[in-house]
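> forwarded from #structure-qc
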């Protein structure tokens, strides 16, 4: 019957791809300082689909965290967003008043901050902190929210959750505090989760447990994750797509497997070359020569050119645009050809 239907009506029309959970287009953040204008995020664009993980990688100071804070609407003065759109499930967050943004934070989008010891409230027990978004966004009563908070603590692997819910942050280990942060972020099942180096300073065993937890929860709820890190080993395990940032700009973006197998931008190649390899002995690990540029004193042209072995005179004329060099693969380099 289906063959007859296809013969009469022709092939079914192609369904359009579902819209991304997050679409960032041309995002620029500026800080006006005594030393000049600093742009830690400059014309940044990317998308994240439901159930997908975008990893954002780069050296410290490249703009990974500032870009994420801009998405959340948490850039404080003297910083401000000067250009671009941030679309969350079709809604432009830049057009919303602060009160509307606060209603979205925790419900539709949430962030796991890099250091839970400073992000958690030291004078509130962790049960109350997990219950708070449930009371605020889901309108649960205090008792119901407390029971849900204990269930969340159990789900993220906190032992004896009913007892631990009454503890304060300083009574928990670093790994347990990070699990509490994850429980708070996932309390209302947000569409978008931004994880800012959530496994920094944790031992390898706890790090693996946190990553497994994030992936399991993503599989359960279809959460779109933006994962910020400088750890290429972690990124290779969890990312669907990788965006490499340098001096506030995305210099390469590709599916994770493709980027690790065939990095095209000189900076990405340099980052991957610095990874230690099992079975390979070396007196010194390779390093990218030079220093990260001062964002307040950026010269014209490509910001990476002073550290780049491929640099040519024309690299000083203007910054290279992020261009497609293969299917799903983009790079910003004059010397990289399709």
């Amino acid at each position: 019957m289906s063959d007859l239907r296809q013969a009469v009506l022709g092939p079914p029309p192609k369904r359009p791809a579902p819209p991304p959970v997050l679409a960032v287009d041309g995002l620029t953040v500026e800080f006006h300082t005594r030393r000049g204008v600093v742009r830690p995020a400059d014309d940044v664009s990317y998308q994240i689909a439901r159930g997908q993980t975008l990893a954002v990688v780069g050296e410290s100071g490249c703009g990974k965290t500032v870009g994420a804070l801009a998405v959340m609407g948490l850039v404080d003065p003297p910083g401000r967003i000067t250009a671009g759109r941030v679309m969350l499930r079709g809604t432009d967050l830049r057009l919303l008043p602060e009160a509307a943004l606060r209603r979205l934070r925790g419900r539709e989008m949430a962030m796991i901050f890099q250091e839970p010891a400073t992000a958690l409230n030291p004078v509130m027990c962790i049960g109350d902190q997990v219950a708070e978004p449930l009371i605020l966004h889901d309108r649960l009563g205090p008792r119901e929210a407390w029971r849900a908070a204990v269930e969340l603590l159990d789900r993220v692997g906190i032992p004896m959750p009913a007892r631990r819910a009454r503890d304060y942050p300083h009574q928990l280990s670093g790994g347990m505090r990070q699990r509490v942060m994850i429980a708070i972020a996932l309390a209302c099942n947000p569409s978008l989760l931004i994880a800012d180096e959530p496994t920094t300073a944790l031992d390898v065993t706890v790090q693996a447990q946190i990553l497994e937890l994030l992936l399991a929860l993503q599989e359960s709820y279809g959460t779109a994750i933006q994962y910020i890190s400088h750890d290429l080993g972690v990124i290779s395990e969890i990312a669907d797509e990788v965006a490499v940032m340098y001096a506030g700009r995305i210099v390469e973006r590709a599916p994770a497997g493709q980027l690790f197998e065939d990095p095209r931008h000189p900076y990405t190649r340099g980052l991957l070359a610095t990874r230690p390899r099992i079975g390979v002995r070396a007196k010194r690990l390779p390093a990218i020569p030079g220093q990260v540029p001062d964002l307040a004193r950026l010269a014209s042209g490509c910001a990476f050119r002073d550290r780049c072995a491929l640099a040519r005179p024309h690299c000083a004329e203007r910054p290279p645009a992020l261009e497609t060099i293969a299917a799903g693969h983009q790079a910003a380099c004059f010397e990289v050809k399709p």
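QC bot note: The mean pLDDT is 89. The radius of gyration is 22 Å.
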